Amino acid sequence: MKIYDSNTAPNPRRVRVFLAEKGIQVPYEQVDIGNAVNRGPEFRQKNPMGTLPVLELDDGTYIAETVAICRYFEELHPQPPLLGVDIKDRAVVEMWQRRMELGLLLPIADAFRQRHEFFKGRILQVPEYAEVQKKNAESFIAWLDGALADRPFIAGERYTIADVTALCAIDFGRISKIKIQPEQKNLTRWHEAVSSRPSAKA
Fold first, then answer.
1. pLDDT, tens digit (0-9, with 9 covering 90-100), for 21-66
2. CATH number of the domain located at residue range(s) 87-201 in this protein
3. pTM of the entire structure?
4. In 10 A of CB 135, how many CB atoms?
5. Phi/psi zone of residue 65: left (φ > 0), alpha (ψ -120 to 50 degrees), beta?
6. What does the CA dihedral 178, 71, 149, 185 come to, rounded to 10 degrees?
């Protein structure tokens, strides 16, 4: 078993943080995304989408997509539970995880991908859309600050995958000058708390 990884991309970091929270050690193999190795024919045999991370199982199965990989490990190692503890809690965690993915990580990623030189010639870029998504991300961050007024973590009283996604998204946002504002006290408190966890260094 091993994970194809990139130390510079947010989605692989989500898996590393998730596994670190569970105390799971898996070998990582770095993929050179700077030279587009992940977009070459050899890597696309592992993942036709050409994205990272990818989990390779001992039987030769390849599992891509961040949350799918996390679900696999949650089934293998249920403790500590990062995807919920019962039917209702799993649904609530999934709800908040999707909000963080679609409302925060996606616009932050678009703000980077749609105008940065790294993606020039790799995808169709629309710089104007990057600016729109930057504003969408900033609006969502302001909303999230309010949502955290009555809870310590994104989905409630416990640290979950929703916190992992939000942490990696906000940290990645710095590249595009998307950040928590000084007046956003709830989000600042949350970010300091989750950043101080040992898993945040994964």
1. 999 999 999 999 989 899 999 999 999 999 999 999 999 999 999 9
2. 1.20.1050.10
3. 0.94
4. 12
5. left
6. -30
